[in-house]
Amino acid sequence: MQFGIFTVGDVTTDPTDGSTPSEHERIKSMVAIALKAEEVGLDVFATGEHHNPPFVPSSPTTMLGHIAARTERLVLSTSTTLITTNDPVKIAEDYAMLQHLADGRVDLMMGRGNTAPVYPWFGQDIRQGIPLAIENYALLHELWRKDVVDWEGRFRTPLQGFTSTPRPLDGVPPFVWHGSIRSPEIAEQAAYHGDGFFANNIFWPKEHYMKLIGLYRERFAHHGHGTPEQAIVGLGGQVFMRRNSQDAVREFRPYFDNAPVYGHGPTLEEFTEQTPLTVGSPQEVVDKTLTFREAFGDYQRQLFLMDHAGLPLKTVLEQLDMLGEEVVPALRKEFAARRPAGVPDAPTHASLLAQRG
What we know:
Radius of gyration: 20 Å
CATH class: Alpha Beta
Mean pLDDT: 94
Low-confidence stretches: none
Strand order of the largest sheet: 1-2-3-5-8-9-10-13
Strand content: 5-15%
Largest sheet: 8 strands, parallel, barrel
Shape: globular
Order of helices and strands: EHEHEEHEHHEEEHEHEEHHEHEHH
GO molecular function, one term: monooxygenase activity
CATH architecture: Alpha-Beta Barrel
Number of helices: 12
Pfam family, one: Bac_luciferase
Domain Luciferase-like: 1-297
Protein name: 5,10-methylene tetrahydromethanopterin reductase
Distance between the termini: 23 Å
Number of strands: 13
Structural class: alpha/beta
Keywords: Monooxygenase, Oxidoreductase
């Protein structure tokens, strides 16, 4: 099972002192966080893709390419690649190039994003979001698997005798996860292609994601890729830790209360009760994360959101120390002990190459 972190790259004012990092500082801190993730033994670093303030990661391949040059083991992923507003030809080429530079340590999470204005900025209609996601990914899937592609669809000019370059490393495309908060069509898309399904698992009660993951597992088996238990599932989560719960709650409360996404709504206590957010000791994070398996079945990837809501870099790095030194080792041991035979590991370039061979 893979453990890691994902970032949305928000530039948010620290509510405790009023300081706001510059875009330059935020970008550099994201790199520092990725390097720390490898240092403490995590498996994955994933970045979102946004094209509007207050977010900075508009070019994931640039950031991940830089991190690839400074790491040796970390799997580099997107926590959203905008399949609706990016040209699938450019995605095919950019991420194949990144795959070569990173010696295969690359995968992608496809998504539609949560910023409505991005569609007209890139010449698309948000009302066509689902059809765009389905058609664009079908083309990307083909571009990575056929050396010469003829294509005609609704949303882009036709291709005749086209070859995207470079070709995927070793002839093995990057593994793809399809991320969704609410759309059963995306769960079906992931199942149809035999890809992974990543449930954001942050803002909604577990019952909501149980339905999506259950649908994905059922359709994965229907399309002949294996049993429902062999489907490839990833989950998100949010944590904030201190040695004792009271300190964690006291320190995190002003960040939660003023966060752009969930601030000024439910209380911290209500949110931690109703969603996967865990604010407490490392052991409490272990205990709550283990309950995800009870709700969603055995799964392959767990990513945590750590660097958001204006938290200073120093605090995030302290969180990563606790995550890597205490939480993840305990979770690895517990998940491995409870994992039945026949449940696959998270796909990697090496495992996909061996499978192909």
